[in-house]
Amino acid sequence: MSDQLPHPPKAVIFDWDNTLVDSWGTIQAALNMTFDDFGLETWTLDQTKQRVARSMRDSFPILFGEDRWEQAKDSFYGHFQSIHLETLMPLAGAHDLLCALRDNGTYIGVVSNKNGDFLRKEADHLGWTPFFGKIVGATDAAKDKPAPDPVHLAMGDSSAPQYENLWFVGDSVVDIQCARNVGATAILIGDEITGHGDTQNSATLSPDWHFADCGALVGVVKGFSKVL
């Protein structure tokens, strides 16, 4: 990573879970209830952080088998729906970061491997939907992250100039891969890169910039407003 700060973005695409909101506990609880339903061993929180990154249609056939993964999907969705809004918590500085980007006139979108319906309900629950041009979840595009398809969908049809300086902000190896696949600046939020256990050759991937949390990035974005 360079010692110089990144250039002001024309557009920013955010991951959702554990980038803007804290949802590890919710994901772990819903997964473990699903594992119990299928007689499988449950995961610790650390195992969940390392193994969860790709979308359900990419990961569940491996976890539950091709013949049972759709049944497991329904089980997980039932458990998740029962708890996700009541346990949803914004991460420190996330709202301030969205406000700072909006005030700079930056286009903001979301690309997540969470089910799109759940994703949009959570954004509505927090009152954040107006920040975003588009909110794209799993299966909304032809392929899921790290493929470029959902980013193109989130950016819209008339956004070619915005790709000149696009940020992808996330917490996982898959987010960094996705940034690379669309030529975006990869910005990592958090203490560590998650999702190593679900990604090959993850050791070769590192972000362009790393910030401890959203709050640490707010000052950088507000500094841009002085030169824009």
Which structural class is indicated by helix and strand composition?
Answer: alpha/beta
- Low-confidence segments: 198-203
Q: Helical residue percent?
A: 40-55%
The number of distinct helices, counting runs of at least 4 residues, comes to: 9
> How would you spell out the order of helices and strands?
EEHHHHEHEHEHEHEEH
Shape: globular
**Major sheet: size, sense and barrel closure?**
6 strands, parallel
- What is the tally of beta strands? 8
Mean pLDDT across all amino acids: 90
For the CA atoms, what is the radius of gyration?
17 Å
- Distance from N terminus to C terminus (CA atoms, Å) equals 24 Å
Q: State the strand order across the main sheet.
A: 5-4-1-6-7-8
Strand content: 5-15%
At a glance:
With 228 residues, the protein is α/β, with parallel strands linked by helices. It is 41% helix and 15% strand.
Outline the structure in words:
The chain is an alpha/beta fold and 228 residues long. Helices cover 41% and strands 15% of the residues. The protein has helices spanning 24-37, 45-51, 56-64, 69-83, 94-103, 116-126, 149-155, 173-182, 214-224, and strands at 11-14, 21-22, 89-90, 107-115, 135-138, 166-170, 185-189, 209-211. The strands form two sheets. The chain has a six-stranded parallel β-sheet, sandwiched between helices. The protein is globular.
